[in-house]
Amino acid sequence: MNEAFRCGFVAIVGRPNVGKSTLANALIGSKISIVSRKAQTTRHRIHGVLTREREQFVFVDTPGFQTRHGGAMNRMMNRVVTQALADVDAVVHVVEAGKWSAGDAQLVPLLPRDGHTILAVNKIDALADKNEMFAYVGKIMAQFPYTAVVPVSALRGVQLENLLTEIRAFLPEGEPMFEADTLTDRPVRFIVAELVREKIFRLVGDELPYGCTVVIEQWEENEKGVRIGACVIVERESHKPILLGTGGVHMKRIASEARQDMAKLLDKTVYLDVYIKVRKGWSDREGALRELGYE
Q1: How confident is residue 183, by pLDDT bands cut at 50, 70 and 90?
Q2: Using CA of residue 173, residue 177, residue 180, residue 184, what is the dihedral sign?
């Protein structure tokens, strides 16, 4: 007797910097969410799709739940997290092995108590003393009745298949929602803009405040390739020289690395222009956030 096909939504949640986007990308097998060591890298709810013979997982990679700072953007990101938790069939709460902070604890009351929440203990490869894992997990389990605990390393692909097995049990029976070759429901322009933002965070994230986003303003395709115009929007004039770097060295590297990733994604030759515009206070105005594509 053939096993019924299962399909459902799975939220990946956790405080900033626990490796949610790395885990989502590893499970899907493709780079859908951008990754950096900086908090607030993921700002949107991003659906990544993994389709196999008898199941389709629709992963919802969410922003890290923000507890330290207010502001319109952080309020918006927290709404994305809470909405995702209400709209899914299973939840994967990601924590960093051996670390538990106030940010982790503040997310626990938001987790659904329907028996569909899995604890994924990430970065186990970085844990010096593996014997500490039992006591660490025990303390967390005392705070919330997780259905299962799966130690993983998203970076090294450790125990991801076990995690998928645990998740599958919560997916309802039903037909797939996406075609088998679909990796994300986000348009390609969104992914391309995120690739530019990832390079900015990685190269000048320590110097540049988070009032920075990317909008694709030009997209022209022909048989030779695709010409893309990416506008980096910042909040202050003082942010422009940080982005540019001495002699434009930062911007050249950002554009070069982003263009290489775009060429792989699109499987085409990419001609990329990156430029900067100042839009004061955009990240603290909900109207501006919506206009720029934030939920």
Answers
A1: confident
A2: negative
